[in-house]
Amino acid sequence: MTERDEYGNADIIGVDSAELQLNLEFDELNRVTDALNRLAGYEDTGLTPAQIHRLKAKYEALESDKNTIESSLINAEMNLEAQQQEIRLLNMEIAELRESTQLMETVLKDARTALELLHHMNLNPKEFCFVFEVRCAIDALLGGAEDDQNET
What we know:
By secondary structure, the protein is mostly helical. The protein has a domain at 1-46. The chain has helices at residues 17-23, 26-45, 49-119, 125-141, 146-151, and strands at 2-4, 10-12. Strands 1-2 form a two-stranded antiparallel sheet. A hairpin with a 5-residue loop joins strand 1 (2-4) and strand 2. The longest helix has 71 residues, at 49-119. The chain is rod-shaped.
């Protein structure tokens, strides 16, 4: 239906474009030219209008899928950032707990040493039992008797 002139402009086959231009108003000529260029564009692809509509529908479906995937990716990135922030906070809490645990272990070892000294003093049986029970409790908190820990 269309052919291209030496300048690449689309014309209707068998129609004198100069005569067409003389018989049309400027706005009408622009609309006809736009329509001819679109028709020529279709013809240049070698595809039928039905094929182009199918391709357009596929393109729009793919575009929709792409938008969905991009949205999912953005959500995943935001979730990842939130999880990384949570991990950083938990790591800080773990470090604080380790520090507290080490401090508590030092205090318990010092208390056990003090109780060891008391144990060797002249204590009445009730005091002796109390010191012994406290030492056993400290040993349990420390993961075993001090003597057992030194052997490992």
